Amino acid sequence: MLIARTTPKARLRRDKLHLAQLGREFDVCASQLTLKHMWANDILERAQQAAELVTALLSAKYIQILISNNMNVSRLAELSQQDGQNTLAISKAMKNDSSTMKFIAILAVLYAPGTFVAVSRTSLPNNPVL
Q: Less Cβ around it within 10 Å: N or C end of the chain?
């Protein structure tokens, strides 16, 4: 077999060419790395903006819910106050009704026995009517 022997000059030239090729490949890798780094930073910035937007939307919705809740509590307080007024009116009406029922009961106690006696005397066939 024939082993090719290269001179140191040829080997130096070949190594220089190889280093130049490696330098170009390194430059390509470095520029790709820079682009990917910029792309990653852009994605990170967009993600942060999206997170801020979601936070703002959630805060707005929370405030809207608080306002709605306050309105509902206010309405509930108004309805409770109306309910209390209605209950008071019903209790006053029941008291008046109770007073009326007592009055009717007293009248019945006073007049019922006399009416019973008067009716029982007039309905007897043997008693002459006075």
A: N
